[in-house]
Fold DUF445 family protein.
Amino acid sequence: MRVDAVLDGLTEWADQVHWFAFVSIPFFTGIVGWLINWSGLWMLFKPINFHGVRIPGLREVAGVLPRKLQEVPGWMEGGLGWQGIVPARAAKMGSIAVDKVIAKLGTPAEFYAQLEPDQIAEHIVAVFRPDLPALVDEVMMREHPRLWRDLPRPVRQAVIDRVQAQLPGVVKTITDEIGVHINQLLDPKIMVIDHFRKNPELVVKVFKDVGQRELNLMVAFGFIFGFLLGIPVAIIDQTWHQEWLLPLLGVVVGWITNLLGMWLIFDPPEAKRILGIKVQGLFLRRQDECAEVYARIIADDVITLERIGDFLMDGPRGDRTRQMIATAMRPAIDKAAGPLRGAVNVAMGGRRYDSIKDSFAQEAVGRTITPFRDAEFSRQQSEKIRVLIARRTKELPPKDFVEMMRSAIKEDEWMLYAHGAIMGAAGGLLHLGIFNWHWIPGFPPA
């Protein structure tokens, strides 16, 4: 009896179903799910810079909105438009990259040690040595031209030769001093944040190069999730025949589709067994491969010898670096003067001699650090940084590894979910517009 009642109920339900509309709903929600995840990725990465219009008074209004709404790119600057979530959070990504990953990969001293300071010293000597005669001549002609011109050529050459002889030892002292004080001279956090802030396209490159395979899967699974979720939606819609149901259920489908897409990539961080099946975030399954890609980007574009040199000389602690190098140069100048030092002191006076020594030291500072900015040498040294970062990144616990990618956007994921909900509702309304044909004579309502 109960089976007969169930069969009768199903038969009666089937008679009321508009099957074309019923079958179309899962395909429709599948297409909408694909569009949601595809456009969601666009929202994540594009445009690199803010595109929109400035609205008078929007900044003041945004200041009193809930904090979540203040996070919408452009609103706090009075702009109505869009900037990709990832490039808009470039500085934040840099901060998290340091706190969660780079700080755990090694101290500034470890990075510097990987660059092999002895090789750096040899390169500095090789680049600096040809410039020394001109530098000595330039300083002496500026500080005491008459004395320098009056000195016999062999004596002037002897001074230059002694300076060149002292150069390897001086440069070794400088690179050693930098190594000793590197933790005070170099701040990776400031360096990385500043670089990411100025180059938001680099942050997009990190995401895409490291996780492009997973991002593509996320888009593909948008159709699968949307299709599967569309089956119960079709049953509910054809059971109650309420026009408001499809837009409302579209909100749920859109929200869940994006939620499942993010879960598919990042969760769970640790491998788990569910019904005998290994379950782990797709991104985590390729940790070793992703670590190699991440290390290459950081070593080639972020923590390079060239950028370390720029930071040491022109960063917030550049004055201290310059002073340290100049201090290391002064004893070398005394040694270079050798037995002439007494005569020079008498001829010029101690104060004048000290002035020449300081002038030479200051002139040498910039030239000493210039080889750090040699792009080809920097590329050669970056391989050592890449090896270090790759090794340490592979050793990271999965939870820390996934935070490297997700933390920068986690607080903004609600925008993607809201975008999915809005598109889901729009899809529901569109389906109603296409398939709700009750206004055609003889056609049953969808």
